[in-house]
C-alpha cells in the first residue's frame, strides 16, 4: 500500500529520473519482481489480498512510466529545444501608455530640447507654496479663481490647485539661471462635466535669469506650439494672474479647415491653450531671488486640454475611466 502511494505521488523532471523510477519498480531486480517472488511464501488465506495489491502496484507503476514519458517528450517539444523552431510564437498582448502620459512626455521632450529640466513637488501643499508666496495673500479676491479642496484649516493644508507651487519650491532651493518645467496632478473643487474635472494635470514652466524679456517668452511659446501642434501662429491676449505682471492668455491659430476645427474654435480659428506672464517681482522676493538682478517668465497649461485637441477627444472624463476601448487606441503611439 505504501509503495502504491509513492508511485502515485511520483513526478519526473528529467528522463533520467523517470528511468531510475522504472528500474526501481519494474526492472529485473526491481521491487515488483521481489514481491512476486515473495508471493509463494505468503500464507494461503492472505494470497488473494497480497496478489491483488501487487497487481495494482504493477499497473500503477506501468501507467505512471507511460504517462510521464509522454509528458516529458511533449515538454521538450514545447521548449522548442528539439521542436519546430519556425513555429509562430504565442501572440503577446501589449499594453499602451495612458494618453496623459504620452502628451506629458511629448511636452517634456520639447522643453528639454531647449534646456528646461523637470521638477516635481507634493500634491498636498501648505498655504504658502500654493497661494501666499505667489502674491495671493489671505483674503485676496483672486483666491476665488481656484476653488480649493482644503484638508485642514488654520494652518491651511490643501490639495494644490496648480503646479506653480512646485516653482515656488524650486526657486526657494535654487538660484538663477533657472529653467524648469513642473508637470503634475492638480485639484479644483469644480463640477465634473465633459469639459472640466476636479482632478487634472498641468505643466507649468519657469525661466529666470538676467535680462529675460517678454520677447523670450513669446519665442519660447512659439517654438513649443510649432513642435507640439505644427502651428506657427500664436497671439497673446492681455489677462490677469496674481503672480505675473504683465499676464497673457496664449491662443494658437488652429485654422478652419473642417467642421471639427469650426466647432472647437467656435468659428474663429483661434484656440486658447495656456496662461503666461512675466514673474511678478514680489514672487521672486518671496522665494529669495533678487528682482533687481533677475527677471523671468512663467507659463502654465492643462495636459488634458492639449491631449483632447491632439487626439480629438470630446469628453475629459474618458481619461479617468480606464475603459480599455479608449486606452487601446493609443497603442501605436510611443
Ligand atoms: N497657475 C496658472 C493656473 O493654474 C497658470 C499660469 C502659470 C499662468 C504661470 C501664468 C503663469 O491657471
From TrEMBL:
<dbReference type="GO" id="GO:0005737">
    <property type="term" value="C:cytoplasm"/>
</dbReference>
<dbReference type="GO" id="GO:0000287">
    <property type="term" value="F:magnesium ion binding"/>
</dbReference>
<dbReference type="GO" id="GO:0006432">
    <property type="term" value="P:phenylalanyl-tRNA aminoacylation"/>
</dbReference>
<keyword id="KW-0648">Protein biosynthesis</keyword>
<dbReference type="InterPro" id="IPR045864">
    <property type="entry name" value="aa-tRNA-synth_II/BPL/LPL"/>
</dbReference>
<dbReference type="InterPro" id="IPR004529">
    <property type="entry name" value="Phe-tRNA-synth_IIc_asu"/>
</dbReference>
<keyword id="KW-0460">Magnesium</keyword>
<dbReference type="Pfam" id="PF01409">
    <property type="entry name" value="tRNA-synt_2d"/>
</dbReference>
<dbReference type="GO" id="GO:0000049">
    <property type="term" value="F:tRNA binding"/>
</dbReference>
<dbReference type="GO" id="GO:0004826">
    <property type="term" value="F:phenylalanine-tRNA ligase activity"/>
</dbReference>
<dbReference type="InterPro" id="IPR006195">
    <property type="entry name" value="aa-tRNA-synth_II"/>
</dbReference>
<dbReference type="InterPro" id="IPR022911">
    <property type="entry name" value="Phe_tRNA_ligase_alpha1_bac"/>
</dbReference>
<protein>
    <recommendedName>
        <fullName>Phenylalanine--tRNA ligase alpha subunit</fullName>
        <ecNumber>6.1.1.20</ecNumber>
    </recommendedName>
</protein>
<keyword id="KW-0963">Cytoplasm</keyword>
<keyword id="KW-0030">Aminoacyl-tRNA synthetase</keyword>
<dbReference type="InterPro" id="IPR010978">
    <property type="entry name" value="tRNA-bd_arm"/>
</dbReference>
<keyword id="KW-0436">Ligase</keyword>
<keyword id="KW-0067">ATP-binding</keyword>
<dbReference type="InterPro" id="IPR004188">
    <property type="entry name" value="Phe-tRNA_ligase_II_N"/>
</dbReference>
<feature type="domain" description="Aminoacyl-transfer RNA synthetases class-II family profile">
    <location>
        <begin position="103"/>
        <end position="321"/>
    </location>
</feature>
<keyword id="KW-0479">Metal-binding</keyword>
<feature type="binding site">
    <location>
        <position position="245"/>
    </location>
    <ligand>
        <name>Mg(2+)</name>
    </ligand>
</feature>
<dbReference type="GO" id="GO:0005524">
    <property type="term" value="F:ATP binding"/>
</dbReference>
<keyword id="KW-0547">Nucleotide-binding</keyword>
<dbReference type="InterPro" id="IPR002319">
    <property type="entry name" value="Phenylalanyl-tRNA_Synthase"/>
</dbReference>
<dbReference type="Pfam" id="PF02912">
    <property type="entry name" value="Phe_tRNA-synt_N"/>
</dbReference>
<comment type="similarity">
    <text>Belongs to the class-II aminoacyl-tRNA synthetase family. Phe-tRNA synthetase alpha subunit type 1 subfamily.</text>
</comment>
<comment type="subunit">
    <text>Tetramer of two alpha and two beta subunits.</text>
</comment>
Amino acid at each position: 500500500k505504501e509503495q502504491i502511494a509513492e508511485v502515485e505521488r511520483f513526478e519526473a523532471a528529467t528522463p533520467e529520473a523517470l528511468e531510475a523510477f522504472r528500474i526501481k519498480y519494474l526492472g529485473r531486480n526491481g521491487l515488483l519482481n521481489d514481491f512476486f517472488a515473495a508471493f509463494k511464501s505468503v500464507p494461503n488465506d492472505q494470497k488473494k489480498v497480497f496478489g491483488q495489491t501487487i497487481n495494482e502496484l504493477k499497473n500503477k507503476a506501468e501507467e505512471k512510466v507511460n504517462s510521464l514519458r509522454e509528458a516529458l517528450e511533449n515538454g521538450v517539444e514545447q521548449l522548442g529545444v528539439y521542436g519546430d523552431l519556425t513555429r509562430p510564437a504565442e501572440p503577446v498582448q501589449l499594453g499602451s501608455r495612458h494618453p496623459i502620459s504620452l502628451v506629458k512626455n511629448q511636452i517634456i521632450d520639447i522643453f528639454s530640447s531647449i534646456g528646461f529640466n523637470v521638477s516635481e513637488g507634493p500634491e498636498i501643499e501648505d498655504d504658502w507654496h500654493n497661494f501666499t508666496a505667489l502674491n495671493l495673500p489671505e483674503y485676496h479676491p483672486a483666491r476665488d479663481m481656484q476653488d480649493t479642496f482644503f484638508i485642514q484649516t488654520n494652518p491651511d493644508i490643501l490639495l494644490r490647485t496648480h503646479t506653480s507651487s512646485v516653482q515656488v519650491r524650486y526657486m526657494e532651493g535654487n538660484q538663477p539661471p533657472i529653467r524648469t518645467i513642473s508637470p503634475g496632478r492638480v485639484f479644483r473643487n469644480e463640477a465634473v462635466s465633459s469639459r472640466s474635472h476636479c482632478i487634472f494635470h498641468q505643466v507649468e514652466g519657469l525661466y529666470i535669469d538676467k535680462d529675460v524679456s517678454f520677447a523670450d517668452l513669446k519665442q519660447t511659446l512659439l517654438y513649443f506650439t510649432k513642435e507640439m501642434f505644427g502651428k506657427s501662429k500664436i497671439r497673446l491676449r492681455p489677462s490677469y494672474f496674481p503672480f505675473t505682471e504683465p499676464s497673457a492668455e496664449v491662443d494658437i491659430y488652429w485654422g478652419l479647415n473642417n467642421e471639427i476645427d469650426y466647432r472647437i474654435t467656435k468659428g474663429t480659428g483661434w484656440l486658447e491653450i495656456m496662461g503666461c506672464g512675466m514673474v511678478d517681482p514680489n514672487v521672486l522676493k518671496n522665494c529669495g531671488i533678487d528682482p533687481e538682478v533677475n527677471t523671468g517668465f512663467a507659463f502654465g497649461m492643462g495636459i488634458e486640454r492639449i491631449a483632447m485637441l491632439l487626439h480629438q477627444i470630446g469628453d475629459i472624463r474618458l481619461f479617468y475611466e480606464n475603459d480599455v476601448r479608449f486606452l487601446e487606441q493609443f497603442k501605436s503611439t510611443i
